[in-house]
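Recall that a protein's primary structure is simply its ordered list of amino acids. Everything else, from secondary elements to tertiary packing, is in principle encoded there. The following example makes that idea concrete.
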Amino acid sequence: MILTEVEIQIPETERRDGLIGYLAKGVAQRIPSGSTPVRFAVTRSLEGSYECEVGVLEESAVAGSARPASIFEFVPRSTESSEAFNIVLLVPTGIGAEVGGHAGDAAPVARVLAEVADTLITHPNVVNASDINELPENGLYVEGSVLTRLLMGTASLQPVRSNRILVVIDAHRDELFRNAAINAVNAARAAYGLRCSEVVMLDPPVRLYARYSSSGAAAGRIEQLDGLWRLLQDHWGSFDAVALSSVIDVPYQYHSDYFERGGEMVNPWGGVEAMLTHTLSSIFDVPSAHSPMFESQEIANADPGIVEPRMAAEAVSLTFLQCVLKGLHRSPRIITERRTMSQRGAITASEVSCIIIPDGCLGLPTLAALEQGIPVIAVRENKNLMQNDLSTLPWDSDRFFIVENYWEAAGVASALKAGIDPRVVRRPIKCVSLRSAGNAEQSNLLMQSGSAEAGSLLRYRASQRSKE
């Protein structure tokens, strides 16, 4: 099996609703025959077309494992629950986000928004910081494809007390890195009771190659997946979540360039990691997360000096594995069986109160929120590579809010939780419009009349009806 990134262009339809189905057809017509999309984003909306990047599984899955369900499958929610206020916080991986594009630097945002929410649902890119994971107590750590399926209405999340973690590492030629991974697991077992009975060494390992797409986003190519798939099948039933640690092939100079450029360089490792975990979680329906292994002691021992704060967590870690273990420890169970998706305690699309994204990000989570009627808060300050004007989408009234920063995002979320139109908190307050649903003659009279005359006319009409 091979995972790779495909860049395609889909003509823009004049009809702007039903975009999920339209884009699904466009992708199916343009990716290689027999391949399966596992990740999708619109990188740029042009006049007349959408430029898209699609992660595709080029070969059929190993015998005995199911093909992933279509990432474009959509089930509309029939209700909107008001029992709890649940926020989805999303910062897509590999797009160079100003906040959340490095090493867990969106975790403070997550903790702030968690104060507004009953439950905050987020993904590894937001809170993973090498040896640190600051997921809030009321947070759910969900792999990106699972978060997408939640919003698309095809999966629900069931909180758990803990998971049995299967840890899979590369058969690294240097024993130092194998030992470091085992020590990281044992540290988690001793410090917070991680449930992990063994670490499995994969030989030959999965081959991950990190590269950039033409948009500048981090992507890549993955080969030799078959061995990992067989391993997971052989261990099926003995684990609830999978932690992966393996070498990612990048040009040697990336290691120094990344720190020297002070946060200007898009993290090259995250995109290919997301491709792998999206595919794994989609096929096996288990939480998963990946951490990179150093290629050599020479790279591990390099001194980057004092680095930009957003990257500091990466400068002080040897394994990058601890954040993954901490997140997966209580990652929620994925439920896809329709009859049990809505069981007591499970979170479905109906329980999602709003999603918060960097402005310009147009992928399946945003499209799902659009079609589900879930309010979306887009944050301008979180600049990134995506070039889409989200305001042009066919949003329902009071379902799309653009804010300057995450302070404002928390304020809008608080207003939504309180049942208040966020716009009336600011000044000036726009007057509501008056529109007649009567005949054309009355409508014209109302438009030509001043407010006093219009009010008199309406009172007169009401009095005549009461006499009748």
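The mean pLDDT is 91. Residues 195 and 223 are 30 Å apart (CA to CA).
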